[in-house]
Amino acid sequence: MVTTYPREFSMLAKNIDVKKTFVSDIQRINPKDCENCGGAEVMSIFLAMKGPFQAAATPNNRDETSHWDNAAGRKGGWWVGKTYTFPCPVCLGVKRAEPENVMPTQPAMVGLMNPHTGEVEVLE
Q1: pLDDT in tens, 38-77
Q2: How far apart are CA 121 and CA 111, in angstroms?
Q3: How far apart are alpha carbons 92 and 112 in whole angstroms?
Q4: Structural contact between residues 5 and 24, judged by C-beta atoms closer than 8 angstroms
Q5: Is the peptide bond before 59 cis (omega within 30 degrees of 0)?
Q6: How far apart are CA 43 and CA 109, in angstroms?
Q7: What average pLDDT does this structure show over 95-124?
């Protein structure tokens, strides 16, 4: 499946101060999860403004964070920049309204079932 990114990603990445971008990559585990965001309901982009540095870099202000890049086999480094998070454009960050499977043993959760009569005795 082709990933659909929030439209804000391209606008932010076009900033001339951005040296490199890193986009969140979350694999879905549950088949009911959104195929686009993996069920996280949000997508994040890290905009690297400074780097790469050989040692962990300390951000200058509270809006900045640091990020390690292993550079896929090349010499990696630490980057300093900002992280932005947006709702997934496919599921819009809203949990699906589909009800979960309701187990037939639900009455046992509110009380004990009498094995002879089948009546549920409510526990208080």
Answers
A1: 989 999 999 999 988 888 877 777 778 888 887 655 677 8
A2: 5
A3: 41
A4: no
A5: no
A6: 37
A7: 51
